[in-house]
Specification:
Elements lengths: L1 H22 L6 E11 L5 E4 L2 E2 L5 E8 L6 E8 L2 E2 L5 E4 L2 H6 L5 E7 L8 E9 L2 E10 L3
Parallel strand pairs: 3-10
Antiparallel strand pairs: 1-2, 1-4, 4-8, 5-6, 5-7, 5-9, 9-10
Length: 145
């Protein structure tokens, strides 16, 4: 009986090692992180992460990507009180040139929202979509400072 249990335990161990071993080294595909911030660095990495902005602030949404295929479209839509803010939708398409320069296609894409007039105080959010599928909503507030 113990020989049978030992054989079964070894078999389960081998299966677990095969399954977890197959996942090691497999690149993550898609969007890893979405951060609202006050500025971005030279590689579009987020600086000054926050969820609160002044009415006249430029708002950056830094999206960390990995292994996106050429032709993938990322879109940012900015909302106030559940309503799309006029002229606030922007899209970015991963180009074949970017793909060939960086085979892993890992890095940051930044969406910038710069209101022409001061924003009203209140609750906002930005929606990030990939190929027209919602990935995440990121809430933030605008407050007078």
């Amino acid at each position: 009986m113990s020989r049978h249990l030992w054989g079964m335990a070894c078999g389960i161990f081998v299966i677990i090692m095969l399954v977890t071993g197959c996942n090691q080294g497999t690149p993550t595909i898609g969007i890893n992180q979405i951060v609202l911030c006050r500025a971005v660095g030279p590689n579009q990495d987020p600086l000054g992460e926050t969820d609160t902005f002044a009415p006249t602030s430029v708002i950056y949404c830094s999206v960390q990507i990995s292994n996106l295929a050429a032709g993938t479209v990322l879109t940012a839509r900015w909302y106030y009180g559940g309503q799309l803010v006029a002229n606030s939708t922007t899209s970015y398409t991963i180009t074949p040139t970017e793909w060939s320069q960086n085979q892993e296609a890992v890095g940051y894409i930044t969406f910038r929202f710069e209101p022409s007039d001061p924003l009203p105080e209140g609750a906002y959010h930005v929606e990030i979509s990939m190929n027209e599928r919602l990935v995440r909503q990121v809430p933030f507030r605008v407050v007078a400072q």
